[in-house]
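2024-03-11 09:14:02 INFO receiving multi-entity request
2024-03-11 09:14:02 INFO entity count = two
2024-03-11 09:14:03 INFO echoing inputs for audit
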Amino acid sequence: MHARWLIPIGVGAAQAAHVAHATQYMTVEQAQRAAFPQATTFEMTRADLHALALDAPAGWSPRIWQARNGNQLLGWFFADAVIGKSEAIDYALALDANGSVIALEVLQYRESHGSEVRLAPWRKQFVGKTIRDPVALNQDIKNISGATLSCRHLTEGVQRLLKLHAHALLTAPA
Amino acid sequence: MQRAHFTIAILAIGSMSAVNAHADDAALHAEIDALRAEIAALKAEVRHIEEEHGTGNVTPASAPAPASVSSAPTPQTATAAATTLWGYGEMNYNHPTARAADAQADLRRAVIGFSHAFDDATHVYGELEWEHAVASAEDAGETEVEQLYVEHALAPDYGVRAGLMLVPLGLLNEHHEPTQYYGVERNFVETAIIPSTWREGGVAIYGNTDFGLSWNAGIGTGPDLGKWDPASDEGRQSPLGSIHQELQLARARDPSLFAALNWSAVPGLNVGGGAFTGKIGQGADFAGKDARLLLGELHARWQTGPFDFSALYARGTISDTQALNLTFSGEPTPVPKAFWGGYAQGAWRALAWNESNLSPFVRYEQFNTGAAYATQPLGLDTPALPTEKVWTAGINYYLNPNVVFKIDYQDFNRDDVALGYGNRFNLGLGYQF
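2024-03-11 09:21:47 INFO inference complete, emitting structure
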């Protein structure tokens, strides 16, 4: 008789799973494995973001991991979010041990307009970029017509993470 | 975080089965209260575990306070800031060189847009617009709902929309903010032939593919030929602009169909096209009851380094207008059988510093809103209108990507005072946030 109590809970859980699935391209774990197939551990780490003047939006708090194979540092992995037009785009950036981009992945995109940033050819433009590159839209990163805001904000996000890496992580004790 | 919720749900389900042992309602309520407390405690525990996990091997002192996280990549925080506002506006000044007395300054439009996320996959988008500063019974301004639709993602790469939506034709109609185009005024082709900002009520499906194709197709309302005013110049200015309905008590007997494809697999390049068709007599018993509209367009845009090139061609036809036009004999503006336009444009970001840049551009367009008319008996044929050709050259000065000052000069091959065509000099200010 009390079984009916279970139904709304089950439906709610299923609905939540569906909703996340409907906008999620990749999980953090999938993106980590894709970028660092050789890694044995991903060790979460922190940087003192407040000490950096990176022109970041309030509340900016990327999650940072060191990708390791045993004692060897393979690179860095960041999970961050930027606003597209009005909604957050969750994305992940992988850098090799020298700070060069291995991959940019869009994890979750919630609006339909501008979702072309998920296209592989656009994201591939970032591969190999370092702190020494401009990483600026319409300079070394080409735009997608109709998705300008998402392109611009994602490009700014990557540039910010490259600065974060160069200023706060390169010299951090491994 | 999703996983955490799931865990809570499963734990809750497990605990719930224990409830079966109790018979009376009071005990049941007490049990539910206890469960609520338990769930709250579990939530706190999960949060605690996540924070610990997040702080890793650094002292908590250097970690930013979780409370200040507004753009963190968790569904919960995204829904917390579920309602957002945006907007854009433009003010224009037009100065016809041959008729200085017709110079005009206008607050062309002020727009407030909003979106609300019901959850990660379901949103409502709306855009409210005021044109010409003041709207009242005695004034020329208009207040309008320009878009209002609900969008639901069914999968990461496709979804469905319903409501008042922008028709996905051309480069400008869906992206009409003043920072998105060169020149003070919107180009003529995407005003006279594709009547931007063109919207219809209906249902659409949309999506994109891994190989760079975005698609959008729908069914909805269409123009109403019964609104054609043969005594007015409006039909000559923009055939579809004069009979669009904008979901204002729209006559909706005949559904229209639209579809658009855009390919952008090569960064910087966009190639696409779209079509819109429907019967536009809307079931009314009049001479134009069988008329069908077909409008198609093709476009390309290539942004490379400091250069931005685009081109577009659009052509429309309206069938079965012969009998209707016969009833308009002697009137200045019959319904065209064909209308078309095309443009090519090049812009160059000549100077860029900090957030600012100066981008000169030049655009050449040709268009004809009455390229052909249905043949009439007894020598009553309407001659085609001459094709208008316009050169526009000017500069967009972006103070930052969201604020633009514009200046340009437009050269018309043929003056038409009624439609405001004649060489002119324009100034504009636009913003977007």
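2024-03-11 09:21:48 INFO post-check: Residues 10 and 147 of chain B are 41 Å apart (CA to CA).
2024-03-11 09:21:48 INFO post-check: The domain at 92-103+145-432 of chain B is CATH 2.40.160.10 (Porin).
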